[in-house]
Each structure stands twice: as structure tokens, then as C-alpha cells.
Amino acid sequence: MDYLLQLAASPTAWVALATLIVMEIVLGIDNLIFISILTNKLPEQHRAKARRIGISMALVLRLGLLSTIAFIVQLTAPVFEVLGQAFSWKDMILIAGGLFLVWKATTEIHHSMDPEPEEKASVSNTVTIGFAAAIGQILMLDLVFSIDSIITAVGMTEHLPIMIIAVVTSVIVMLVAAEPLAKFINDNPTVVMLALGFLIMIGMTLIAEGFGAHVPKGYVYAAMAFSAVIECLNIARRNRHKRLLAARQ
């Protein structure tokens, strides 16, 4: 109890908490974009449930990893070396997650450009398989993003309460933002292509970091923010054009 009171009275702890919350929310955006795109492919009545399950699993994984900080720190220790390049478990997880993101985003872009005819199947069978597949893929990426998130938290502060508060806050923000973001993506088909492009960029960043090439996250998110602003301007222009046409008619 004394430890928590001392922590609450420390300005440094509050600065670390605020910084870490911002970092965790930014890192959670990647996770949320993937969840939104994937759940939008499910039947409408299952989307909200899948999003809640996906984000809840992200919270469980993050808190579970926080309880094993000693193990998480060991993930950064080199396991083997290839041509002078050392690889840790963290590196291998990031590379695997990055490859999965690139593959998934590329596949989704292909389906968007050249959609396959829907197979004739019963509604219940399609929903069950689609829901299970979506949850499985969300769980896999939750694990990758959770490890990245917790290692970032461990690198920024040594105080476990600060880490827990920052992680829980970021997941709550994800939970609140999930529905509006998914609806926005679903209502604007061009945003889907942009978001898939983001996922490819994030995947390549994870792969590069897995091979030891540090990519400043600020550059990545600045590029994403710039692209998002341009797309918002395009959406506003299209909406204005539609209103003008409607007024003329």
C-alpha cells in the first residue's frame, strides 16, 4: 500500500503513465484496424460479438503477459544466429506476425479486386466457419501485438501498476472506438483498401524489426495519418458532390 501511495505522489510516475497510455493506444490502433476489417466480413449480427471477443482476448493476453514479465524479458535474449544476425523469440514472433499480416492484407486486396463467386452453403454453416476463422485469426494477431505492446511497456517503466493501468486504459479505448471505426470502414469501401495498405506497411515494419532493422514508429504513423487525412478529404468531396446532385434533382 505504501508503495502505491509513493507511486501516486511521484510526478515522474504520472509522466510515465501518461506517456505509456499514449504509446499503448497508438500501438492498439494496428490491432483495432485488423479486427475491424476482419469482423466486417462476418454476417452483421455476429460482428459486434466478434469485436468484443477479439478486444477482450487482447486484454487477457496483455494482462497475462504482464504477470510473466520475467519470461517476457527473456524473449528478447538471442536464441540462434544466422550469418551474424542473432534472432530471439520476440524477433521470430514479429516476423511470423508480419508475414501473416502481409499475406492476409494481400489476400483481402485480391478478393476486393477479383471477388470469387459465393459458394452455395447453408447460412448456419457459413456463419459458424466464418466466425471461428475470424476469432482464430484475431487471436493470432492479438498475441503478436500484445507481445510488442508489453515489451514496449517494460522498456518504458519498471512499475507494474503503471503498466497495468496503461494497458487497461488502451484496451478500453479500443473497445469504445471499435464500433465507430468498423462502421466507418464498412460505410466507405475506399477506406478498406487504405486500411489494407496500412496493414501491409505494419506487417513489413514487424518483419524489418524482426530482422533487427529498427523502423521509427513516428514515421510509420505519420504516413498513416497523412493518408487518412487525404482519404477523409476525398470522402468529404464525394459526399458534397452527392448532395449537390441530389439538390439539382
Automatic annotation (TrEMBL):
**Superkingdom of this protein's organism:** Bacteria
| Family matches, as Pfam families | TerC (PF03741)
Q: What topology does it adopt in the membrane?
A: Multi-pass membrane protein
- Where is it localised? Membrane
Q: Which InterPro entries match?
A: Integral_membrane_TerC
Keyword check for Transmembrane: yes
- A GO term from the CC aspect: membrane
Q: Which residues cross the membrane?
A: 12-38, 59-80, 86-106, 127-147, 159-178, 190-212, 218-236
Keyword field: Membrane, Transmembrane, Transmembrane helix
Which family does the UniProt entry place this protein in? Belongs to the TerC family.
Q: What is this protein called?
A: TerC family protein
